[in-house]
Amino acid sequence: MRWIHLLVLGAIQGLTEFLPISSDGHLALAQLLLGISEDNLAITVALHSGTLFAVIVYFRRDLWRLASALPAMISGGAIGDRRLLAAIVAGSVPTAIIGLLLKGPTETLSKSLWAIGGFLILSGAWNWVVVRKTRAAGATRSLDEVSLRDALAIGVVQGLAVMPGLSRSGSTIGMGNLLGLSREAAARYSFLLSLPAVGGALLLEAKDISHFPKEQIGPVILGSVVSFAVGLAALAILFRVLRAGRFEYFAFYCWALATAVFFAAVMPPPSP
């Protein structure tokens, strides 16, 4: 794969992993548009590793707090920390089960423009509904108030969001809002919950990498660094938008992109 391809894919992964517009859908579209046909697990792992480290860096204080709370799981301690840690573990269970069950269909649907466009429509509709419902309800619960019921519900939608075009961040933040969590609490829990899900998926994929050409080391490192840097910027943008209460903007974007995808699907392929 060419350097420019990894640069583009890294920027797309970093920008769309955290904004509620579906990174998998954008990556699938980019690969179709760029004519990238090879299924390179090393590149997938590198791009997602970049955004995984972006989450670790951005939420380092929350992660340190949770790490410090581990002994308290046995000896007692801050109830909020133990509750949040338990919620992350509980939410990861349905995500893992659903993700494994949908692995085959996801790989097939990621090659279909119609499927990607359809799921983008659903992502936009979800963003719009969440804004309308929660703006009136006034969700205010904090990160320390995430219950096991919340965790399981958010874990389910995170598992379903493996479909190309369904936004993981949009699905999980939206579900948290609907369950009464504040925008910021829902977002923070969403990204903390993503760490075991994304990390586990990367480990499963990494073990299947049987051959890695030396000439791709440079481009792959570039893609990972770009996805990390752009991912940090995207996280900052997302929290600013959340605080401003303008989540519906992402709904308009998803619908516009879906329209373009459907148009591309009906266009005849270019003549050789």
Sum up the structure in keywords.
mainly alpha, 13 helices
Descriptive account of the structure:
- This protein has one domain.
- Helix content is 76%, strand content 0%.
- The chain contains 13 helices and no strands.
Tertiary shape: globular
Would you list the SSEs in sequence order as H and E?
Answer: HHHHHHHHHHHHH
Helix content: over 70%
Query: Termini separation (Å)?
Result: 22 Å
Largest sheet: none
Structural class, please? mainly alpha
Estimate the mean pLDDT confidence: 85
Supply Rg.
19 Å
Low-confidence stretches: none
Tell me the count of domains: 1
Q: What is the count of helical runs?
A: 13
**DSSP strand tally:** 0
Q: What fraction of the residues are assigned to beta strands by DSSP?
A: under 5%
Could you give the topology of this structure?
Blueprint: H1 3-16, H2 23-33, H3 41-58, H4 60-69, H5 72-75, H6 79-101, H7 103-109, H8 113-137, H9 148-160, H10 168-178, H11 183-206, H12 217-244, H13 248-266
Short description:
By secondary structure, the chain is mostly helical.
